[in-house]
Each structure stands twice: as C-alpha cells, then as structure tokens.
Design goal:
This protein has about 210 residues and is mainly beta. The strands form three sheets. It has a seven-stranded antiparallel sheet with strand order 2-3-12-9-14-7-4, with helices on one face. Strand 5 and strand 6 form a beta hairpin. The longest helix is centred in the first third of the chain and has 17 residues. The N terminus is likely disordered.
Length: about 210
C-alpha cells in the first residue's frame, strides 16, 4: 500500500478529525480516569488468533470488553483474569455525548497503550453487532501516525499524525474502513511521564452479550 501524508484540517471518507479537542487539563483528567480503570482491570499484551503477541497492551471498561486470544477476536463481559470490567469513566462518556450527540451510550471503552516501538496493523472494527453507530477514538500522550484505507484491503492509504487531545470519529463509509497506527513518536508528549501513547476507542456493541 502507498501512504500519502496529509495536512490538517481534514475529513477523509467519513473519518472526522477534531484536532486538540481536549485541552491539557481535560487530557490529565481523562488519564486519571483511565488509570483507575487499569487498577481494576490490568492491562495485558493480547495474543492474536495466530498466536502472535500484540505490541500494544490493552484493557477495557464498560458492559463488554474486547478480547483477542487463540480463540479469536470477540467481546466478553469479564476481564481475562475473571473480574467484571469497570464502568466507563464519566468524563469519557461526556466526551462521547458531546462528539456524537447520541443518547445511546457505548458498550465498550477499549484502552490501548503504545510503548516505544508499538504499532497497530491495518484492521477493521467489525466485531460489533450494529455498524450504524460511530466509533470514537481519543488520543492521549505521544504522537501516533494514523493510517486510513478503504473498506477493502489493498489500494491507496492516507496518513496523518494524531497528537494528544485529538479525537477521531469513524462513521458512514469510514465505519468499516481499514485503519491502523504505523508508529509513534516516543517521548513527543509530556502527558505520560515515562512516554507512550494511549488510545481510547468507544464502541456500541449492541446485540452481542
């Protein structure tokens, strides 16, 4: 695939990017809420269904959490260690309402941590039962190079740098578009004292229990 670096402001095929939507104080507040989640439901490196360990660490909040292991990709009501997922933090839910204008709240708040060298290959968010709701993605910490493609593998992609406080909404034709994070600029933000990037993804899972 060929990647084209884009300059903001930008809206591409349904990907809406809200640059700097969260100011520094809101970012710090969100980070504290997410730390509370991780204390209850510790982050871990998932294993793909092919037996490869992902470079990111993950945890979740909400009615359901996203799981990847040898059995495949799916949503589960409990953390792999057996505890129920903690509730989605109030501040994160408030952002969902502000961005989407929806009364329907997300079922899953997936939290990914990118350390030095971590990345996320191109993928679709397609494990949900209803694709009519948007996916909202929040960036905190180090810059991440976000790659966007179409609904089929292959072909042209476009990339842009996401900074701490940026919010991306995947809706319409972008709801099932391939996307990923090629790399991060480790140490580019002071939000996380030891460096790294946190990505928070809010999803309506709907009829999957």
């Amino acid at each position: 695939m060929r990647a084209e670096i884009l300059r903001l402001p930008i809206k591409v095929a349904g990907f809406e990017v809200f640059k700097g939507h969260l100011d520094v104080s809101a970012q710090v507040e969100a980070l504290e809420e997410l730390r509370d989640v991780a204390r209850i439901a510790p982050m871990r490196h998932p294993i793909t269904r092919f037996g490869k360990q992902m470079s990111v660490r993950m945890t979740s909040a909400g009615r359901l959490g996203w799981i990847s292991d040898a059995r495949g990709y799916r949503y589960e009501s409990r953390h792999p260690d057996g505890m129920a997922w903690p509730a989605i933090p109030a501040g994160i839910l408030s952002l969902w309402r502000d961005i989407t204008g929806l009364e329907r709240l997300p079922d899953c708040c997936l939290i990914n941590f990118y350390g030095e060298g971590a990345r996320m290959g191109l993928h679709q968010d397609n494990d949900e039962g209803d694709f009519s709701y948007p996916v909202v993605s929040i960036s905190l910490g180090d810059d991440g190079l976000f790659r966007m493609g179409g609904t089929e593998r292959g072909g042209k992609t476009q990339s842009l740098w996401l900074n701490s406080g940026d919010v991306v909404v995947m809706d319409g034709e972008a709801r099932l578009a391939y996307h990923g994070v090629d790399r991060i600029r480790f140490g580019s933000s002071s939000l996380l004292p030891d460096g790294g990037r946190i990505n928070v993804t809010l999803r309506v899972v709907a009829d999957l229990d």
